[in-house]
Write a structure and sequence with these properties.
elongated, 167 residues, mainly alpha
Length: 167
């Protein structure tokens, strides 16, 4: 996996999950690998088995949500992300993806709140700053959007997307 030999890894993981079916980690790695290969249906099946064995696994919830988001199943991803946040409430990725899912469902107020939580967890994450600014602009909260964009310039002063949004 570290060398991106995903197909070979899947063969090894298939033997691992066959021989140690009751161990959750092999199922997690199988799901993660399928996500890397953009095979979300197969990822979802493996990750659901991982979560059956390890129901409190924040990383399992995060990866299952990725599989659901890849399939544009935004409403299905929300409770999965919320379950992950119960185990790991300060994980930026979970908040960011929850904001993304809410945004895609037109729930912009919730999306803004989740992106703010993502920034509280990781203030240096540039994509979160940009996504939040775009949502604030869409909600006509221009003063807040400007403030976020100016903070974003501190992270990347040459970013063309940030400059365009400021205009």
């Amino acid at each position: 996996l570290d060398q991106n030999h995903f197909e070979l890894a899947l063969l090894t993981l298939a033997m691992l999950t066959r021989d140690y079916a009751g161990e959750g980690e092999g199922w997690y790695l199988t799901g993660w690998t399928f996500n890397q290969l953009q095979r979300p249906g197969e990822a979802g099946r493996a990750l659901r088995e991982h979560l059956r064995l390890s129901p409190q696994s924040a990383k399992g919830h995060a990866q299952l949500a990725v599989a659901l988001l890849q399939q544009e199943r935004f409403a299905d991803a929300i409770p999965v992300l919320e379950a992950g946040l119960k185990s790991k409430p300060t994980w930026r990725e979970l908040h960011f993806n929850l904001g993304f899912a809410c945004s895609r469902l037109g729930r912009d107020g919730e999306a803004i709140a989740h992106l703010r939580d993502a920034l509280a967890a990781d203030p240096g994450h540039l994509p979160t700053h940009i996504a939040l600014a775009e949502l604030l602009l869409r909600a006509r909260q221009t003063n807040d959007a400007r403030r976020v964009l100016l903070q974003t310039l501190d992270l990347d002063s040459a970013n063309p997307r940030v400059r365009a949004l400021l205009q």
